[in-house]
Write a structure and sequence with these properties.
With about 325 residues, the protein is α/β, with parallel strands linked by helices. Helix content is about 45%, strand content about 20%. The protein has eleven helices and 13 strands. It is globular.
């Protein structure tokens, strides 16, 4: 019997040495104050995480439609569950992320649209900002707005008054005025309005109606579900007129066909930046840096263009996009 037990132990030890070590399964969780089904920011950011996780073989989880006072607690719950990476799509989460990052030095935190200075504020150097170029985002939409506006009045709706949103607004106006000016137009960019949230679609309806009354005929925004409300109001105004003469440019995903008023979208490939963040986690060199997304590295682009945009205008627009790529735009 002793020989049998010894043999079993030897075999068990041999099998343990022979068996390959199981590969670690990494996990990422997204916290989001927008809804992942809002057809705008929330949807695009969720899909970016899912696409990145599929490429990297990571498990995912999310909690959406959370209030500002729930940011930290939601992140904290995923930290306690041992998630490797917490993904927060917006600069508004900065304080909560920095607090969680201090309390959980072994966990990594990726802040989409995080400020360049944020990673340096993390005492454990476990925070990375993923920062699409806000000016280029504005340019992509603004150039088309400058070409398509007939009234000369264009509008921008913001969710919250963030630096990135301000950058998009400024780039939008800058490009529209430049392109419109070359066509002999005087472009009036209405003051940016902020809903104070990203999920109040009723505010979007209210804002868009007021801006239409002021003559706006091309819209762009950075407000998720608020933008969806704006598009609803634009579609209703066009229906009342019996033709589509008021347009919207979507972002950050290609939403052509979602609403009749959408003529194009500014597209941000957030998944490429999330993949890079995930790889840094795997490689053990995550944090302390800002990863920039630009047209030049393939993170920013324009989506499909509606037939509402005349062929000649589409050709002009493509020319401006090419200038943005090669660095000669507005030079």
């Amino acid at each position: 019997m002793k020989k049998l037990i010894a043999l079993v132990l030897v075999l068990a030890m041999a099998m343990s040495f022979a068996a390959p070590a199981s590969a670690k399964t990494y996990k990422v969780a997204m916290i989001c104050d927008s809804s992942i089904s809002d057809g705008g920011w929330g949807t695009a950011c969720y899909n970016a995480m899912i696409d990145a996780a599929a490429k990297m073989g990571w498990e995912t989880a999310y909690t959406d439609s959370i209030a500002q006072n729930e940011y930290f607690d939601t992140a904290d719950s995923y930290c306690q569950l041992g998630y490797d990476l917490i993904y927060a799509p917006g600069n508004q989460y900065t304080d909560a992320i920095l607090q969680a990052a201090e309390e959980y030095p072994e966990i990594c935190f990726a802040l989409l649209n995080g400020a360049v200075t944020t990673p340096d504020k993390a005492v454990n150097k476990n925070v990375m900002s993923l920062l699409p170029d806000a000016s280029q985002i504005g340019w992509i939409a603004g150039a088309l707005a400058g070409l398509m506006t007939e009234s000369g009045t264009i509008a921008f709706i913001g969710g919250m008054e963030l630096d990135t949103t301000k950058g998009k607004y400024e780039g939008f106006g800058e490009a529209a005025k430049y392109v419109g000016g070359l066509k002999g137009k005087t472009i009036n960019l209405l003051d940016c309005v902020y809903a104070g949230s990203f999920n109040d679609s009723a505010k979007g309806v209210e804002f868009a109606k007021a801006m239409i009354d002021k003559g706006a005929d091309v819209f762009f925004g950075d407000a998720s579900a608020v933008d969806s409300g704006a598009r609803q109001a634009i579609d209703e105004a066009n229906t009342a007129k019996g033709e589509i003469k008021i347009y919207d440019i979507g972002q950050p995903a290609d939403i052509l066909g979602q609403n009749p008023c959408v003529i194009c979208s500014q597209v941000t490939d957030n998944s490429a930046m999330i993949v890079a963040a995930m790889q840094a986690v795997v490689d053990g060199n995550f944090g302390g840096t800002t990863l920039f997304g630009t047209m030049q590295n393939g993170c920013l682009s324009a989506g499909r263009i509606s037939d509402l945009v005349p062929a000649a205008v589409q050709e002009e627009y493509q020319g401006y996009l090419a200038q943005m790529m090669d660095g000669t735009f507005m030079k």
